[in-house]
Protein: Probable DNA ligase
Amino acid sequence: MTFKALSQYLDKLEKTASRNEITQILSQLFKTADKEEIDKVIYLLLGQLAPNYMAITLNIAERMMLRVIAQAYDEDINKVKALYKQMGDLGNVAQSLAIADGGALSVSAVYDKLMEIAREAGAGSQERKVSGTAKLLGELDPLSARFVARIPVGKLRLGFSDMTILDALSYMVKGDKGARVEIEHAFNVTADIGKIAQKVKARGLSSLEAIVPEPGTPIRPSLAERLPSAEKILEKVGREVYVEPKYDGFRSQVHIYEQDGAKTVAIFSRNLENTTPMFPDLVAAAKGLKVKNAIFDGEAIGYEPKSKRFLPFQETVQRKRKHGIEQAVKDFPLKLFIFDVLYLNGKSFLNVPFDQRRKTLEGVIPEAGEAIEITRQEKVASAEVIRDLIKKYLAEGLEGALIKKIDAPYKAGGRGYHWVKYKKTTEGGLADTVDCLVLGIYKGRGKRAGFGAGAFLVGVKEGTRFLSVSKIGTGLTDEQWREMDKRARSLKIKDRPKEYEVPKNLTPDAWVKPSLVVEILADEITRSPIHTAGLALRFPRLIRFRDEKSPEQATSITELNTLFEMQKSLSKK
Ligand code: ATP
Structure:
């Protein structure tokens, strides 16, 4: 397929708002794409060159892209800048300057070139990136240039996600959504959507039946449900359950495998980012485990060996940095608690019942290791014992407990009652904190004037929209206010994003583009005639900025309604 043909699809997709129509266009595109190329087509559609966890990015700043465009079309940089100011989009600028009627390059040729540019490193690499991208643009027709110019600056936003692609793949093979479950299952087990598409295209749906995890490719993690009481948990999860402490740190899926003859370790976060470089100490410890290859699931948390105290998330998070890792390893030692095994020595464990997975785990992970140990666990059949255990965990500075179904398979990519989380807030009021999107900020008045932001508006998700649920003006420390102000400032926009639904009289002084997710703890959820969510949070407090969550992962209105119902059932007791 030529890149020009792909660009015609991109153009159509850009002009389409309906998800159904987008799915149809995509399925048409997938039918037309060659089986050798469909993976590349999909990465490019998502504005990427590879799945996120591979961290292959072009990373060209807008300023640099202006130079690229000037060089590509032999134009004066000031003219390019002026065009950008006028058009507001680098893609449109490139399109307006492109003259080549070209269009002969294939998708693979463009992709390979972009990949080569992304892999440039070392001395002089920036210049090589500029000239490489300029050369590529110069060979493209105007429409192709528009899209290629947007990719390196992260601006190819076509407004659909992995899930729409999965739907479209189902339409490609079956003409309807009938294959969606199977395809999604495969995606949960090996989170590389390009590879899955290629398999389906080359060898049909049946090639997905035997899909097994591949060390090196992340598995979409299992997530927990909430329930309002220990009694309800026993009712729903099983008369006998496993209870484990809930550590509040970094979700860490640890892959151990052989690559090019060497034992290799890769660690993936809850969102499947590759976090390996953050944890050289855990990598070294994982290499020491006596396994040929494996995928473990666990949580890494800051730990003070002397006092045996676990650190709160705010301190653990200091490990999340790009520079000074060596010092951070010393200052903030971590302990990785492994709670599951998904793959071991060439065999998938996803469908093995949890109690057997646990037995296997006990055979390979030490009970008391220096950096890695197995998560404590107790088999419990009484609500009272569950409550006592939680009290014990909380006294140790932990976040709460996870209650797990004894014979459940590992549910990749899903939330369900095979795992229930039970936090300290569970019986005191709200069954959980709420992850909200910051929609806008209000200027500080009076005491808050010095901080810039004096209050902020947050919302929950409904489909692709965000509904306002609380205006928060208290419950932040001075440091948190400063942080809020700093972050909101860099995300400020003039116009209300069309997906925000906010009552007129709550219009903030500045809108914040959909990016900043905050975890909010409230005393209560109340019905609200004001907020568009129809519910509001009473006495909200900011727990933390949830950098690892994207706006799509904010709490949904359905989840908030469930929490509201849970709270009603609690207050009746
Ligand atoms: P939150 O972290 O706010 O509870 P979440 O949406 O990130 O929400 P949940 O599925 O709700 O994640 O809670 C499960 C999380 O708890 C896991 O992602 C994992 O990071 C963490 N965790 C800590 N201890 C355990 C454990 N023993 N077993 C499973 N998960 C654990």
